[in-house]
Specification:
Elements lengths: L2 H25 L2 H11 L10 H12 L7 H13 L4 H11 L13 H11 L2 H18 L1 H12 L4 H9 L10 H9 L7 H15 L3 H10 L6 H7 L11
Helix pairs in contact: 1-3, 1-4, 3-5, 4-5, 5-7, 6-7, 7-8, 7-9, 8-9, 8-10, 9-11, 11-12, 11-13
């Protein structure tokens, strides 16, 4: 890249990061910050900007100038993430990572960035959106390598990678790869961890909107291994009295 273009690219990155930080500071509400931090059990403080405000700021800040390259996009996401002083800065990083302007950059090269964010974020407010959206997009676009990766994550020692593997098909409906879903679930089925049990129930509940009969069959088949929490969540909107069950 010519020096002038590189300088312009770095300036765009810096401008976007500064716009996010300044925008959050301008919207800060100290009366909300402490309760938000307490609710999320977060060591990192909040500015006190609710989700709609963060998203509105992101829409305005992302409009222009756009980041010129895949490297610039990843570098900016990671700068917001790694150098965050407030939790909302990390929410903005997640928004930028999945923004429609940069859909062409959703390739396997982005996976290490998402893995870093999931492992270092290590809490549901970060992980669930990354798993169900960003990882879901990669799984749709690159089914073979991503299926292999999600199977590996399902056996990881890291709780949040395991949860991500279970949740990555939340929006897939009829396109759900049941073999992959069930493998990820079954590798976590006997675990006492709340966040895995909740994820199992959530994933099954979402698929039940597509095929309630199959989810009821699966839960009945595994009732001795699935936790009561997973079963309740899975069957939340499934009625055994329904005509097709």
């Amino acid at each position: 890249m010519p020096a002038a273009k590189a300088t312009a690219a770095r300036a765009a990155q810096r401008a976007l990061v500064e716009a996010i930080r300044a925008g959050l500071a301008a919207r800060a509400d100290p009366s909300k910050a402490a309760p938000m931090q307490a609710y999320m059990k977060s060591a990192m403080p909040y500015r006190g900007v609710p989700t709609p405000g963060v998203r509105a700021l992101c829409r305005a800040s992302f409009a222009a100038p756009r980041l010129a390259s895949e490297n610039a996009w990843r570098d900016t996401v990671l700068e917001l993430w790694r150098q965050a002083a407030y939790r909302e800065e990390r929410y903005a990083a997640i928004e930028l990572s999945g923004h429609r302007f940069y859909r062409d950059f959703q390739t396997m090269a982005a996976l290490p960035m998402y893995e870093e964010m999931i492992v270092t974020g290590a809490w549901w407010d970060y992980v669930d959106g990354l798993a169900s959206h960003q990882l879901g997009v990669l799984l749709t676009r690159f089914p073979s390598p991503m299926t292999k990766t999600m199977r590996a994550w399902a056996g990881s020692k890291d709780l949040w990678k395991r949860r991500s593997a279970i949740l990555c098909q939340l929006s897939f409906k009829q396109a759900t790869d049941l073999d992959l879903l069930y493998e990820c679930i079954e590798r976590a089925m006997d675990e006492p961890e709340f966040f895995l049990r909740k994820a199992i129930g959530w994933a099954l509940r979402e698929y039940a909107k597509t095929d309630a009969k199959e989810v009821l069959r699966y839960v009945r088949c595994h009732r001795t291994r699935l936790s009561p929490l997973s079963q309740r969540e899975a069957l939340k909107h499934v009625s055994p009295r329904s005509g097709d069950l």
